[in-house]
Amino acid sequence: MAMTITEKILARHAGRTEVRPAENIWIDVDILMTHDVCGPGTIGVFKEHFGRNAKVWDRRKVVIIPDHYIFTADEKAHRNVDTLRDFVKEQDLPYYYDVGGEKYKGVCHIALPEEGHTRPGEVLFGTDSHTCTAGAFGEFATGIGNTDAGFILGTGKLWVKVPPTMRFVFEGKLPPYLMAKDLILWVIGDIGVDGAVYRAMEFAGEGVHSLNIEERMTLCNMVIEAGGKNGVIEPDEVTLQFVKSKTSKPFEVVKNDRDAKYHSERVYRCDKLEPVVAKPHSPDNRALVREVEGTPLTRAYIGSCTGGKITDFIAAGKILKGRRTKIDTFIVPATTEIDRKLDREKVGGQTLREIFVQAGAQLGKASCAACLGGPKDTFGRLNQAEVCISTTSRNFPGRMGSREAQVYLASPYTAAASAVEGKITDPRKFL
Amino acid sequence: MIKTIRGKCYVVGDDIDTDQIIPAQYLTYNPAIPEERKVFGRFAMIGLPEKSQGLPHGNIPFVKEGAKKSEYQIMIAGRNFGCGSSREHASICLREAGIQACVAEFYSRIFFRNSVNGGYLIPFETEERLVETVKTGDELEIDLEHHQLKDVSSGKIFRLKPLGEILPILEAGDIFKYAKTKGMA
Questions:
Q1: pTM reported for the whole predicted model
Q2: Count: domains in chain B
Q3: Nearest CA distance, A29 vs chain B (angstrom)
Q4: 20 to 30 A Cα–Cα from A110, which one of A181, A197, A259, B8?
């Protein structure tokens, strides 16, 4: 039987020649990732069920990346990182990116590929809903809770229900004012925040394959905002070049069978799309930027796994270069590697850091920061009734802090243009 | 497994995400530590905007100020309950607050898995939307054998979908006990 990428990867990891959507199967796990928010609970579950002295199933398949609550005075947050540290020591885990040292990375979903832990054809589970980001590398990647992660730590296996695949085809190349964020907000606006529940979302077409790897990550990152189980993009030269530059571990590329059956297919013409935002308080509350143009803002936020990668900052830099922001603008690189690149990447002869500082933006340290609110002293957190335009992924009530705050999700272009004007602004004005 | 669940219900709408169920600022408590796990009950549903707190009227806190638990045992929701973040703290806080079962049109995948695999609560699904029919505070009774929900206050009966493939895990207690029955863990 012909299968999709997702079905094929799951079949291989179940030791089967084929699987069909809606089947429940047990699969072998290639990588389990956890972080400071869900790691301590996961470790607790593992010890409770496998014993105080139990060893993880494979120490080279566990990746621990503290990233959520790092730069805070909250003592419990620090205690949680200590819990991770103790576990790493006890289990002698090689892939731990500790806080406060050279190895510290920042946001796990960006750190994983940077450190070579994402590879085509593999199965990656993580205790974070945005683990789906790694589908950009042609693998099966999805978020789970502490219990499932604790189970994997002990057994290296998990049961999954095979999802049917929804296919989204983007024809033609993206116009220069659009970013992957616009594409995914279009899709979520069309199918709704529950439009892909228990399904895989596959992205295809020239519009997708002409994107760089980071933009592809943005597409897959937000499938969870439509309820999707995983996002996936068939690997091509761009994928392989990136992955091979990060790891020497062998992997097997999995592609769709020609007659693979999809749950549904939607086709978009890239040149017919426009910059969009998701209005408060839902990622599917889509509007064209020009429909809400002029909406007064009090803050702009550019960061997170969704919108804090170097290409996101290059995009913002193109617009902020030589301009001043009219509202408080927060810039948070996802990882320390991206942070360092802010001093190397230039737009018009100036480094991104120089551009952002001259624009009056505040730069934070690599972490999840205010994307999910977090402790009260989190950098950029919306502690009151702010109206914020943000390159992050979610805008349900209270997501970035206060329940009174309003968050508009947008591309880095749109967020930067809006920061300059102090109100929602179409980036085409500056591009 | 128990045969009936009876108690007062709390009603919420569609797409209630886990940030509203348990906001991120409380995630520094470690649910693996028993004293800290109990704390989650106090903060369950604290992220709901006032108008969404207990339908149809709103402004009914799920947990009264100063209380450690909720007075409600059954959560009634619309579509896509538990969407967003994968935090298992969402299922845990509802359980700690006293919720034994949720009844929704359908759930977000990760919340559903967490609730079942961790054995925290039973996530029932309905064919019929109950959000506009049942009111916060109504006394309900779930009959697990006959897959039905009775509104004790009005006498009305609603059908629940059979638990199907998750039933063996719920009967075993959690994914670990279930895997043992399969000779896996």
A1: 0.98
A2: 1
A3: 15
A4: A197
